[in-house]
Amino acid sequence: MGIVSPGFQGRPRSAGESVPPGQYATDDFPVLSAGPTPRVPQAGWEFTITTETGAEHRWDWSAFLSLPSESPTVDIHCVTQWSKLGTSWEGVSLDTLLGEVETSAEFALVHSYGGYTTNMALTDLLDGQAWVVHRYEGAPLEPEHGGPARLLVPHLYFWKSAKWVRGIRLLERDERGFWELAGYHDRGDPWLEQRYQGD
Q1: Confidence (pLDDT) at 37
Q2: What is the mean pLDDT of residues 63-67?
Q3: In degrees, to the nearest 5, what angle opens at C-alpha 68 toward C-alphas 65 and 74?
Q4: Phi then psi for 137, rounded to 5 degrees?
Q5: What would the 3-class secondary structure string for the chain be?
Q6: Of 17, 28, 48, 162, which is most buried with the most CB atoms under 10 A?
């Protein structure tokens, strides 16, 4: 016998809420991670973009903070069905980070301190859709939420917004990351409910 009654739809959406299907809005910011929280000192942090030819573009913390900064306010959506609306961040656009990178790659594999990875099409990181952020709601990003810096890709489910980000490897062919190898969707569009492979 199942533990969920047939027809169960989760918490209903409130009228006027702009949340994707199957989601509910919350004021909380749940902490969900695939493993222990890495403690990465800013002095030891660096971010590297590696092209498909092996060329590396690298920023330490100081160089990263010297790049042009943006302050996106966005809704975020977790695959566990919560959505948090109007979140405010500060960081560097992937358009800026990739601006001087010569590549013909179509895919990216994001790497985090602690070993986590996630994959996406390069087009999902460009055109003002993604940032490496280091501040949340006006304060430095706490380690449990991915500090000192995390990826922010708000138009996709939040597992794509890798915490403790340390680099991106550009690829000619798609290569699945941690949750994708476990059966999660390769793209993860919350408006299309792309939670699992086959959705």
Answers
A1: 85
A2: 98
A3: 95
A4: 50, 40
A5: CCCCCCCCCCCCCCCCCCCCCCCEECCCCCCCCCCCCCCCCHHHCEEEEECCCCCEEEEEHHHHHCCCCECCEEEEECCCCEEEEEEEEEEEEHHHHCCCCCCCCCEEEEEECCCCEEEEEHHHHCCCCCEEEEEECCEECCHHHCCCCEEECCCCCHHHCCCCEEEEEEECCCCCCHHHHCCECCCCCHHHCCCECCC
A6: 162
**What is the spatial distance between Cα 133 and Cα 69, in angstroms, rounded to a whole number?**
9
Bridge-based pairing of strands 150-152 and 139-140 is: unpaired
CA distances from residue 144 to 108, 159, 178 in whole angstroms, order as listed: 24, 14, 19
Tokens linked to 61: 């913390």
Single pTM value for the model? 0.89
Query: Is 115 within 8 Å of 101 (Cβ atoms)?
Result: no
